[in-house]
Design a protein that fits this description.
The chain has a single domain, classed as NAD(P)-binding Rossmann-like Domain (Rossmann fold), CATH 3.40.50.720. Helix content is 49%, strand content 14%. Strand 1, helix 1 and strand 2 form a beta-alpha-beta unit. Helix 1 crosses helix 7, helix 3 runs parallel beside helix 4 and helix 8 crosses helix 9.
Length: 251
């Protein structure tokens, strides 16, 4: 029997991209889904909570409606997020706050609401960060900062929740072939960054890595796995990585 069959799973940002692929994959594996996004396409068996997860009322409704329907929460996947291509020198502060509201504060708040139920099921918390949460990308400075913050709180949650049997997994996707660039605010990204999309992994490949990580209770998932090379290069040779990122930024 599939280990995810019958599990009650919340997915934020489920209308497209990685979130939509996760919903499709987990539905096929027999999971019970609560999906939230501004626009969600789902099956009749899913619980749908449309809305903005930066709002307290929406987050409360997500947890309340999930528990009302199934009486428990097994897995929370904090997937909702967005990018911002403003430079660090000219990012409007309202924009920076909005990015942090969605990419950091919303997952933190929803995790707090879901934690009592995850403790009951000895469940799993999944925070989907980004490779930009390990290597700061100068064309996505505020986005990178928000994902670094998410990575930091994920590590803290892992330590805090371990004694309760709650598994915490951080996910760090690299370049994934989604509409991320189209939805991001600010000036267009550098040409080299746009051209790099041809090397992107599909949302389906990213989903496969995430699901494998959940079923095997992995601590960290980097997808594609070649992304570890960049992570370790940045840790060991930060000046070299920064020079290469500067070349990508300015050509």
């Amino acid at each position: 029997m599939d280990s995810l069959a019958g599990k009650v799973i919340i997915i934020t940002g489920a209308s497209e991209g990685i979130g939509a692929c996760l919903a499709a994959a987990l539905r096929k594996r027999g999971a019970n889904l609560c999906l939230t996004a501004r626009n969600v396409a789902a099956s009749d068996s899913d619980v749908i909570v449309p809305g903005d997860v930066t709002l307290d009322s929406v987050r409360s409704a997500i947890v309340a409606k999930t528990v009302e329907r199934w009486g428990k929460i097994d897995i929370l996947i904090n997937n909702a997020g967005r990018g911002s291509y403003y430079a660090a020198s000219n990012t409007p502060l309202d924009e920076a706050r909005a990015v942090f509201d969605l990419n950091f504060f919303a997952p933190l708040a929803l995790s707090q609401l879901a934690l009592p139920f995850l403790r009951q099921t000895r469940g799993t918390l999944v925070n989907i960060a980004s490779i930009a949460g390990e290597v700061s990308l100068p064309w996505l400075p505020v986005y990178s900062a928000s994902k670094f913050a998410l990575a930091g709180i994920t590590a803290a949650q892992r330590t805090e929740f371990r004694r309760d049997g709650v598994h915490v997994m951080g996910v760090f996707p690299g370049y994934v072939n989604t509409d991320f660039q189209a939805h991001a605010t600010g000036q267009p990204p550098p040409a080299r960054v746009v051209q790099g999309k041809k090397f992107a992994v599909s949302a389906e490949e990213c989903t496969e890595a995430i699901v494998h990580g959940m079923t095997h209770r992995k601590r960290t998932v980097v997808t594609p796995r070649s992304g570890w090379l960049l992570v370790w290069a940045n840790r060991c040779f930060p000046s070299f990585v920064e020079s290469q990122l500067e070349r990508a930024l300015y050509g």
